[in-house]
Amino acid sequence: MIDYKKQIRLSILLALMIILTLLDSYFQIFTIFIPGFKLGIANFIILFVIYTSGLKDALVLSILKVIVVGILFSGLFSAAFMMSLTGGILSTLIMYSAFKIKLFTPVGVSICGSVTFQVGQILVLSLLLNTDKVFYMLYYLIPLAILSGIITGFICKKILDETNYIYRKEGT
Amino acid sequence: MNKYDFLLIITVLTVLALCFINQLNTEKPLLAKVFYDNKEVLEIDLSKDDIYKVKGYLGDVTIEVLDNKIRVIDETSNRNLCSKQGFVDNINESIICLPNKIVIEFDNEEKLDGVVK
User: Fold this and answer.
1) What is the mean pLDDT of residues B57-73?
2) A151 contacts: CB under 8 Å, gap ≥ 6
3) Helix H segments across chain B?
4) Whose CA is closest to B42, among B61, B59, B58?
5) Of residues B104, B105, B103, B98, the one with CA closest to residue B58
6) Distance between alpha carbon B35 and the CA centroid of its chain, in Å?
7) Is ipTM over 0.90?
8) Least-confidence region, from A66-70, A88-92, A166-170
9) Looking at beta carbons, which residues of chain B come within 8 Å of A31?
10) What element of type H or E holds B103?
11) In this predicted structure, which of A36-40, A47-51, A119-123, B12-16 has the lowest mean pLDDT?
């Protein structure tokens, strides 16, 4: 049987994530100074789904988000699309394992995710361009990823605290 | 945040710092190579100040060499990231223009061979 309640909840979250990504791309201030860097606020929804719903839903959501954003902005199967697809899948998997070992708070899990996203996307970029010089970018991307991971982690923690009651009652 | 979060941040930053120290390179770049779609199209001697034009995917890419440094002055793309990047003179750094499929890299090997001889 299809769980319509869950489906509706996930589609609302997907829509919210797409809007946040759109908002994110308007923060051009960061990209002027630091090429290739985006804040990634949409990440906290993936984190939220990992905490409330599980790995499968989080993976589906992150892949769908990349596809929809790809259709809307950068174009399907472009370089940016490949980069964020790999980064998204990798970071979702790593965030889930970080969540499973139960050592970290949402902040730590979020940092794991954003750092893996950067590593994954630079990995794809180096494969696409056939050069290893792009790894140099990680020296400034990873500290920034830690910073944005802390921000999204705190947002997610706040939301989890606020909505804990509702989601706990529905079960995971 | 608990202590494991802090531990995670410190570990990541330490690994990064160690890699960075390991890779610190004071060597001056002497030669730059321009790649279009993974194929080398131009070799630039950085000791001569000059302006070069390379055909990119969306249009011509203009490259300027000044005082052993290199930059892209003009190119066609929607965000113009590589011309905003400015001068580059660190041997590990590179200029990448994804929409134009252009990569500019430093390469010292051939020049160094000359020195050894």
Assistant:
1) 85
2) A39, A41
3) 3-23, 81-85, 109-116
4) B61
5) B98
6) 11
7) no
8) A166-170
9) 79, 81
10) strand B102-106
11) A36-40
Q: Which residue has the tokens 């370089």?
A: A79
For residue B61, pLDDT beyond 60: yes
- A79, B98: Cβ pair inside 8 Å? yes
Q: Is B111 helix (H, G, I), strand (E, B) or coil?
A: helix
Identify from A31, A101, A129, A147 which residue to disrupt to test chain B contact, counting B C-beta atoms within 10 A and taking the largest count: A129
The single-letter code of the amino acid at A11 is: S
Residue in chain B nearest A34 by alpha carbon: B85
Tell me if the pTM is above 0.95.
no
